[in-house]
Amino acid sequence: MLPDVVAHRGASAHRAEHTLAAYALALEQGADGLECDVRLTRDGHLVCHHDRRVDRTSSGRGVVSTLSLERMAELDYGGWHAEPPEHADDLVLTHRTAKPERLLTLEALLALVVDTGARLFVETKHPVRYAGLVEAKLIALLRRYGLAAPPSKEESPVVVMSFSARAVGRVRRHSATLPTVLLLGPLARLRRDATLPPAADYAGPSIEALRADPDYVARTADRGHDTYCWTVDDAADILLCQRIGVRFLATNAPGATRAILDGGAAGNVAAR
Ligand code: G3P
Ligand code: CA
To answer: What is the CATH number of the domain that holds 260?
Structure first.
C-alpha cells in the first residue's frame, strides 16, 4: 500500500510555511493530510507556528507566548519566503516572488480542512510557558467542531502529535478515541522492542532514524503501531518509506512526492 502523503507545514517547499496559501496548495496537489505546529499566544489563541519566536518567518520579532493575537495578526508571514518562479525568465527578472501572507490560526486551518477528506495532523510544541494549556485549548476547539471524540481512531479527521510523551498522555486523558503520534527525536535511537507509551497510537520516527534502522517499522507494527515518518523530501527516502511500510509520510513537497510514489523521478522533491 502507498503511504498517505502529509504536507509538512503545508506545501512548504513552494509556499511560506504555515500559511493558508501553503495548505491550499497542498490540497490542490492532492495531499492526504496536512501537518501543522501549534502554539498559544499570550492571550490564549492557538496559532499555526513552528518556532518559539516569530523572527524567522514573519516581519516582526518576539516570542509567540508573549505576543497577543492582535499583534501577531499585524505581521506578514509570506515576505521572508522566496518561492521558485514558474519560468526561468522570471528568475532573471525578479529575485523574489514571495507574497504577503496573514497569520493562520488553527481555527482557520480547521475550517479549510473540514469537509475536504484530508486529515489534519496537529503537533503541540513543548516545552512552552503554558504547558498543558495547549492540549486543553486544542481539545476545546476540536470539541466545538465535533472532532474531539471521533467514533474510532481510524475515522478521526484529526491526529494529535508531540515529541512530549506527557503531552500525548494529556490528549488521551481528554479523549479516548483521538489518535496520537509520539514523535521521536531526529537523532533518537529507535527502541529494539519498539514499544510506545500506552497513550501513543502511532510511532513518529524521523527519516534519519529510519534510514539507520528500517526494520523499526515492522517491529512497531508487531506491537500494533503504524508509523508516521518525517520529513521526507528525497526520492530514495520516499521509496524506502514505501518499501518498509510507513503509513504516513510527511513531506514539504506533497505534489512531487505523490508523483514519485506513483512511479516517478529521482532527487530532492523540495528543490523542484
Ligand atoms: O511532522 C513532525 C515534524 O514536524 C517534527 O519536527 O521541527 O518540523 O516540527 P518539526
Ligand atoms: Ca511539526
So the answer is: 3.20.20.190
Q: Show the 3-state SS of 26-48.
A: HHHCCCCEEEEEEEECCCCCEEE
Domain count of the fold of the chain:
1
> Residue 120 forms beta bridges with which residues?
34, 158
Question: Percent of the chain, pLDDT > 90?
Answer: 85
Which ligand is closest in space to the CA of residue 159?
1
Average pLDDT, the chain: 93
**Residues of the chain below pLDDT 50:** 93-96
CA distances from 268 to 32, 82, 115, 118, 235 (A): 20, 18, 32, 24, 6
| Contact between residue 205 and residue 216 where contact means Cβ atoms under 8 Å apart | yes
Q: Whose CA is nearest to atom 10 of ligand 1?
A: 50
Q: What is the CA radius of gyration of the chain?
A: 18
Domain that holds residue 39: 4-271
How far apart are the C-alpha atoms of 84 and 20, rounded to whole Å?
18
| Cut 0.85: pTM above it | yes
In this prediction, residue 95 carries a pLDDT of: 44
Element spanning 20, H or E: helix 20-28
Neighbours of 5 (CB within 10 A): 27
Residue at grid coordinates 503531552: 167
- Which residue has 486544542 as its cell numbers? 138
**Which residues sit with their C-beta closer than 6 Å to ligand 1?**
8, 35, 37, 50, 123, 183, 230-231, 250
How much is the pLDDT for 221?
Answer: 98
Chain segment 157-202, per-residue pLDDT in tens:
999 999 999 999 999 999 999 999 999 988 778 999 999 999 999 9
Residue 157 and residue 147 in contact, taking contact as beta carbons nearer than 8 Å: yes
